[in-house]
Amino acid sequence: MRGSLREPMDSISESFRAAASLIASGDATLGAIVLLSLGVSLSAVLLASLLGLPLGAAIAVGRFPGRRAVIVLLNALMGLPPVVVGLVVYLLLSRAGPLGDFGLLFTPQAMVIAQTILILPIIAALCRQSVEDAWREYEEQLRSLGAEGVGAALTVLWDIRFSLLTAVLAGLGRAAAEVGAVMIVGGNIDGVTRVMTTTIALETSKGDLPLALGLGIVLIAIVLAINAAAYLVKEAAQRKYG
Amino acid sequence: MILPLRLEQVSYQSIIEPLTLDLEAGPSTIILGANGAGKSVLMRLMHGLLAPTGGRVTWKGENPRRHQAMVFQRPVMLRRSALANVAYALKLAGASDAARMAADALREVGLWHLAHRPARVLSGGEQQRLALARAWALHPEVLFLDEPTASLDPSATREIEALIRAFDAAGTKVVMATHNLGQARRLGDEVLFLHQGRLVERAPVERFFTQPASAEAAAFIKGELPWV
Fold first, then answer.
1. First-to-last CA distance in chain A?
2. To the nearest whole angstrom, how far is the Cα of A171 from the nearest Cα of chain B?
3. CA A40 to CA A195: how far, in whole Å?
């Protein structure tokens, strides 16, 4: 009994040592997994930004029936459970699903689609809030100077570009850290769709703690770096441009 | 020439009651009244930022928007240099040599030393002077000012008032809302007195203060004077 209590403590420190040496040695498996994770999440962020930033800006300045309902819905969708998004995308992409013919299920592309859906509301909602606040401040002055329509919108978007960067990085943080959606639509196939979070889940259940821990450390480091970068960029911009 | 400006039975929701007046080139017009009297709304109706819910606002000339400018109580600057903010306004107005004209405007109002500073990190008084420089660069025929010194200290206020006089001297028609009676006397030639959305009185400045024709104006002058 006493032995089995001491064993996990030993294995944790043992695992940390092994994880550290995995990272330090630049292990190829670990490297490939990290690269695939970043590739999938960055692609999703790019797509979600291309769709979400204009969508958020349009909702911010547009006046149409049902606008308030759309805003509430968008804010609520920020908390979409990843497994539910995974399930829905799975149903769409599966052989019998409406998009089954494309054969995308269990590919990195499927993971990009799922993550795009997951973070689109985050980027759009945060962008909507930033643009709306800025528009409230700028509208009269810009109209007085003769800026209208798309020209005025572009002026505002450019002026708040650092706030928009924060919205985009919030999306990236969410994409990099989620496990449910990519697990379901990617299938966690070794060397094909295995990313950091799904590997951590799998290796932990198998008992191979060093790789799981090593990836966990890398993942936390990436998320930390993203947030630190966002903070520093915003702070520098604030100092420079007010 | 876009003046005279004609307001015919202009109303706005329940804030401005039907009101008819002409504004001619020349005298500086002060819109006076207590908070909530409708001063800001009336100026926005004149400048075209609000559409009247009744009546008509008509300018005489072609493309009247191009020949007016407005300075607000709190200046709104873009996150770029002071110079770029002025140049931005000139570009919107179709100026071909916006950068040079912006530099000239900053020199003329004595702000050249701030030209390359980010506009939004300037002090409140400097930003308001920059807002006036931005208007100056446009050479407007009419300048609307909505309580331009309400949030400034006395020395910044003096600088702003000097700039407003420069507009007047250059032939720009000044239309300013304020509830600062001292400022109204210093800068105005005539007063439009609003009370609860109604134009109660229109009179030359001196007569308005010495012999107000309406009980509302008399009460307003009496109530405000001790704090001027």
1. 63
2. 25
3. 9
The span from the CA of B61 to the CA of A46, in Å, is: 49
Question: Domain count of chain A?
Answer: 1
- Asked if residue A14 belongs to a domain, the reply is no
- Domain count across chain B: 1
Q: Number of A:B CB contacts under 8 A?
A: 45
Chain A residues near residue B92 by CB distance under 8 angstroms: 145-147, 151
Q: Taking Cα atoms as reference points, which of A9, A32, A41 lies closest to residue A178?
A: A41
C-beta of residue B141 within 8 angstroms of C-beta of residue B110:
no
Inspect the interface and report whether the beta carbons of A159 and B79 lie closer than 8 Å: yes
The residues, ordered by sequence, that sit 6+ positions from B193 with a Cβ below 8 Å of its Cβ are B32, B33, B199, B200, B201, B202, B203, B208, B212, B214, B216, B217, B220
The pLDDT, as a whole number, for residue B145 is 97
E runs forming strands in B68-151 = 68-71, 142-146
Which CATH number is B47's domain given? Answer: 3.40.50.300
Residue A148 counted as domain residue: yes
By residue range, what is the domain housing residue A190? Answer: 21-241
Highest mean pLDDT out of A21-35, A143-157, A186-200, A223-237: A186-200
Q: B97 is in which domain, residue-wise?
A: 5-227
To 10 degrees, what angle do helices A161-177 and A209-241 make?
170
Instruction: Check which CATH number belongs to the domain holding A183 and give it.
Output: 1.10.3720.10
Which residue is associated with the tokens 């500086």? B28
C-beta neighbour count of A24 within 10 angstroms: 9
Of A141, A146, A237, the CB nearest to B93: A146
Q: In this complex, which of B72, B80, B120 lies closest to A140 when CB atoms are compared?
A: B72
The two three-digit tokens of residue A93, written as one number = 């992409």
Asked whether B31 and B108 are in contact (CB, 8 A), the reply is no
Unique residue bearing structure tokens 């203060």:
B209
Residues B69, A138: C-beta atoms closer than 8 Å: no
For residue B227, pLDDT beyond 70 = no
What is the reported pLDDT for A166? 87
Domain-located, residue A4: no
CA A161 to chain centre: 19
Q: How far apart are CA A111 and CA A86, in angstroms?
A: 9
Q: Nearest by CB to B49, from A140, A155, A242: name it.
A: A140
Report the gap between the CA of A133 and the closest CA in chain B (Å): 13
Query: Residue B158 pairs with which residues in a beta bridge?
Result: none
Q: What is the pTM of this model?
A: 0.81
Per-residue pLDDT band for A3 (boundaries 50, 70, 90) equals very low
* A231 lies in some domain: yes
